[in-house]
Amino acid sequence: MSGNRWLSKSAVNVVLLIAAVYTLFPLIWLVSAATKDAGNLLGGDVFSLQGFDLAHNLSELTAYQDGIYFRWYGNSLLYAGAGALGCALVSVAAGYAFDKYRFRGKEKLFALVLLGVLLPSTALSLPLYLLAVETGTVNTYWAVLIPALVNPFGVYLSRIFSAGYIPDEVLEAARIDGAGELRAFWSVGLRMVVPGFVTVFLFQFTAIWNNFFLPLVMLSDKDLYPLSLGLYNWHSNANADPSFYPMVVTGSLLAVTPLIIAFVTLQRHWKAGLTAGSVK
Questions:
Q1: pTM for this structure?
Q2: What total of structural domains would you count in the chain?
Q3: Is position 145 within any domain?
Q4: Residue 131 CA to chain centroid, in angstroms?
């Protein structure tokens, strides 16, 4: 019996080890590849100890077109940071309203929100572009920021968090103490649903940071590009000029950093949200 249990644990550990290696291998390859010059990259000597050229790659990345890479980096931080923060606030407010208020057609309207979850973001790019043309926001920061504020899945998730984290009795006590509806949401409801807010923020931050198709449709000015679109252009140029390959790989490595920082910094709140249901 103990032998079967040992075999079962060993099998599970082997599967988990394979999954971990499979998950981490692209990141390991990226870290190693960022230290190589173009010759070693094209020659496939990514994991060798030869051709260590990280300092030169960073120098080229900084110097190319007066450091346009870091302008793209700032644009991505603006799009992802402001967009995810605004989206999390809008989603939590909408989920709170769907959960705590009664109004005509609430469930039908929520069903429409759920229908929005089923629509792929690429299918919405053309309608969003036509709306941006009508409002004169094409090729501006607003063309990418405004669509990022809406996330149907975030609204759905926020309603679930609101139902699980905000007791109706607490809101009733706040109203008895004289708090208005806006004050009750901002001072009581929002603070109690912080794990849901952080969860929506992280999901949306990752989605906007990796977003490619919407900026491709909306933007033509290179100074407004996010990292995803800028690195794509460099990769297209690398077919004719292999010297772009080290910059693309090194730039991709630096592009992963904000995502890692965001998840490591906010994981305490995120884990609290994911495991809360197990202790209720």
A1: 0.86
A2: 1
A3: yes
A4: 24
Residue pointed to by tokens 């009750």: 184
Q: How many CB atoms lie within 10 A of CB 155?
A: 25
Distance CA 229, CA 211 (A): 9
Which residue segment(s) compose the domain that 134 sits in? 54-275
CATH number, domain containing residue 214? 1.10.3720.10
Q: Is residue 30 part of a domain?
A: no
**What is the secondary structure of 80-118 as a DSSP string?**
HHHHHHHHHHHHHHHHHHHHH---TTHHHHHHHHHHHHH
What are the φ and ψ backbone dihedral angles of 52, each rounded to 5 degrees? -70, 115
HEC string of 174-187? HHHCCCCHHHHHHH
Q: Is residue 247 part of a domain?
A: yes
How many CB atoms neighbour CB 100 within 10 A?
Answer: 17
Could you tell me if residue 220 is inside a domain? yes
Question: Tens place of pLDDT for every residue, the chain, 280 residues?
Answer: 556 676 777 888 888 889 988 888 888 888 888 888 777 777 767 777 676 778 888 888 888 888 899 999 999 999 999 999 999 999 999 999 999 998 898 999 999 998 988 888 888 888 999 999 999 999 999 999 999 999 999 999 999 999 988 888 888 898 888 888 889 999 888 988 988 899 999 999 999 999 999 999 999 999 999 999 999 999 888 777 888 888 888 999 999 999 888 888 887 766 555 444 434 4
